[in-house]
């Protein structure tokens, strides 16, 4: 066992590529850059000391080979330094600078850094390697492309060895074989979906050189119809930009396809938060120990480019008139009332829930009915996965690092610094934008009739049928019954601290009508930290129980709200059962 570990560590640390670079603005400052299977090692050697930092491959999202752009007309005196800002273009651009034979390799990384008061956060860092050791651009570009190909393959998870690197030539340079479908809801939450994609997600996709097709939703259930009727096999993943509502549409669109079992396994779904709640996106970040603040969209954007995926539990929900598949929650009572009735405050974003919580606490309601549930065995949960960075901080890297090889002949020009971050955002080759209402790809007539629901067969009795004696029943009045299969119902609602994306459990929260307003206030305040679930609640007015399935039969002489993933459904009998690890979700 120990021998295998040592061999594996040796393979991870074996040097694949190594080159010496210089910082011309500083005398006697040399960087030795090494690439191994585990990461990019920067060794800074100066007259005073030697410092080293390793950037793990998992923190590098992409790299691009570029050329310098032709300078604007002005002083052509070669003894004068160029502009302090380097502009770069694609190799085939007609605006490139033929006088510069250098090949520039831009490496994009999002590195864990310690942040005062908020633990860790990710910092965007650009490592620029300028290859100019040879007298011809073709030779310099060949070397830059070799580095790019190795880095791309390592990012993809391939184990590269020194023998295979010899085959990475300019003729077979790396080509991205992924293409993403982006479904963006411009009206989710505060209505910033398009802005979030254009400014937070598209630049990262472009850094990773991943092409995409963007479709902007135009009406309710657009995404559902699009997924149901399109040839999804042309894409390797689906990214939704918006709230939990568009996730609900996509998942149920998949289960309205006859080939649902193949789609659900082969095409993962990524979630970029743009709504009011963003429960699933927050749960994914929590599951992966990914910093949520100050940039909530960053974990989702990194998940889109990293091509990492994991399984996710899905829940089959049955009402008297429909069947659907849920990824987040089923609710009856207080939290559902807050969710639906606060829609009028949608422009306030997540604050709408806080304001309406106070209103509903003052005008407290309770609902009569029966609750059945099938208890789940509760084994010890594994420790939450923690993806800690092994990178050091001795170098204290700035947001941009510019290094270059030594030239083969004397040159009088110096490094032209790429200080503008905007220069690092390039047009994604082959990407397309679509926003026409007719781009759903489905048969318009099909959306008129109620679509067929496919999916796995139920393992519990149908809704009107009696339940086995193994189920437990509670009869009485309830302030709320809310079931979740994720840790967070929203960004600020830490509903089930022990929940994981694929733990195979429904976490059923029961608040009996005997709970006082004081207890409910402490409960609502505790939702932001998970404190409401820390104490032993069995038999009390507030209970949190792990179950495999449940059924609610409300007293139909009363009216109220029921929700599935935050979507309003008919008020009446409802039941749900979990299907562990049925879905596939992108993780950072």
How would you characterize the overall build of this protein?
The protein has 588 residues and is α+β, with helices and mostly antiparallel strands. The protein has three domains: 16-71 and 82-174 and 387-424, no CATH class; 180-312 and 432-443, 3-Layer(aba) Sandwich (Rossmann fold); 329-381 and 452-578, Sandwich (Tumour Suppressor Smad4). It is 21% helix and 30% strand. The strands form four sheets. Strands 13, 14, 15, 16, 19, 20, 21, 22, 23 and 24 form a ten-stranded antiparallel sheet that branches. A five-stranded mixed sheet has the order 6-5-7-8-17. A hairpin with a 2-residue loop joins strand 22 (562-564) and strand 23 (567-569). The radius of gyration is 27 Å and the shape is elongated. It starts with a helix and ends with a strand. The relative contact order is 0.16. Residues 3-7, 75-84, 378-393, 409-429 and 435-448 have low confidence and may be disordered. Residues 175-321 form the DAGKc domain. Its EC number is 2.7.1.91. It is an enzyme of class 2 (transferase). One of its GO terms (molecular function) is ATP binding.
């Amino acid at each position: 066992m120990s021998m295998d570990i040592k061999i594996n560590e040796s393979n991870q640390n074996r040097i694949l590529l190594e080159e010496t670079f210089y910082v011309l603005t500083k005398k006697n400052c040399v960087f030795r850059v090494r690439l191994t299977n585990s990461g990019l090692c920067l060794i800074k050697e100066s007259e005073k000391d030697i410092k080293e930092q390793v950037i793990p491959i998992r923190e590098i999202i992409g790299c691009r080979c570029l050329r310098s752009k032709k300078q604007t007309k002005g002083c052509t005196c070669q003894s004068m330094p160029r502009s302090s800002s380097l502009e770069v273009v694609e190799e085939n651009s007609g605006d490139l600078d033929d006088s510069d034979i250098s090949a520039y390799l831009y490496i994009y990384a999002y590195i864990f850094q310690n942040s005062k008061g908020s633990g860790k956060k990710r910092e965007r860092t650009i490592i620029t390697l300028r290859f100019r050791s040879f007298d011809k651009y073709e030779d310099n570009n060949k070397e830059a492309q070799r580095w790019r190909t190795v880095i791309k393959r390592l990012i993809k998870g391939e184990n590269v060895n020194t023998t295979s690197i010899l085959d990475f030539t300019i003729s077979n340079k790396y080509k991205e074989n992924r293409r993403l479908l982006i479904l963006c809801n411009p009206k989710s939450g505060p209505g910033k979906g398009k802005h979030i994609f254009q400014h937070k997600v598209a630049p990262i996709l472009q850094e990773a050189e991943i092409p995409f097709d963007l479709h902007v939703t135009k009406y309710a259930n657009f995404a559902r119809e699009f997924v149901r009727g399109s040839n999804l096999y042309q894409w390797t993943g689906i990214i939704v930009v918006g709230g939990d509502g568009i996730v609900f549409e996509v998942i149920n669109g998949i289960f309205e396809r006859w080939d649902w079992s193949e789609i659900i396994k082969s095409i993962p779904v990524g979630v970029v938060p743009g709504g009011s709640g963003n429960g699933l996106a927050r749960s994914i970040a929590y599951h992966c120990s990914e910093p949520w603040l100050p940039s909530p969209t960053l974990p989702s954007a990194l998940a889109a480019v990293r091509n990492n995926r994991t399984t996710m539990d899905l829940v089959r929900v049955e009402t008297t008139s429909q069947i659907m598949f849920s990824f987040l929650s089923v609710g009856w009572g207080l939290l559902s009332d807050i969710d639906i009735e606060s829609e009028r405050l949608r422009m306030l974003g997540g604050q709408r829930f806080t304001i309406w919580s106070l209103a509903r606490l003052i005008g407290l309601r309770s609902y009569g009915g029966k609750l059945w549930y099938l208890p789940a065995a509760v084994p010890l949960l594994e420790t939450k996965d923690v993806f800690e960075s092994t990178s050091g901080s001795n170098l204290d890297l700035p947001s941009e690092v510019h290094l270059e090889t030594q030239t083969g002949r004397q040159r009088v020009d110096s490094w032209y610094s790429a200080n503008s971050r905007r220069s690092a955002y390039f047009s994604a080759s082959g990407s397309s934008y679509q926003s026409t209402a007719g781009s759903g790809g489905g048969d318009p007539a099909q959306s008129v009739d109620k679509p067929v629901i496919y999916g796995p067969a139920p393992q519990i009795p149908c809704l009107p049928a009696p339940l086995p004696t193994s189920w437990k029943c509670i009869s009485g009045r309830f302030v709320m019954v809310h079931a979740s299969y994720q840790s967070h119902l929203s960004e600020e609602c830490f509903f089930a601290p022990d929940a994981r994306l694929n733990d195979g459990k429904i976490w059923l929260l029961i608040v009996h009508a005997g709970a006082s307003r004081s207890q409910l206030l402490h409960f609502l305040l505790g939702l932001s930290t998970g404190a409401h679930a820390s104490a032993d609640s069995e038999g009390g007015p507030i209970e949190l129980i792990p179950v495999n399935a449940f059924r609610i039969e409300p007293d139909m002489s009363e009216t109220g709200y029921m929700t599935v993933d935050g979507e309003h459904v008919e008020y009446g009998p409802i039941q749900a059962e979990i299907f562990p690890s049925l879905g596939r979700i992108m993780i950072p």
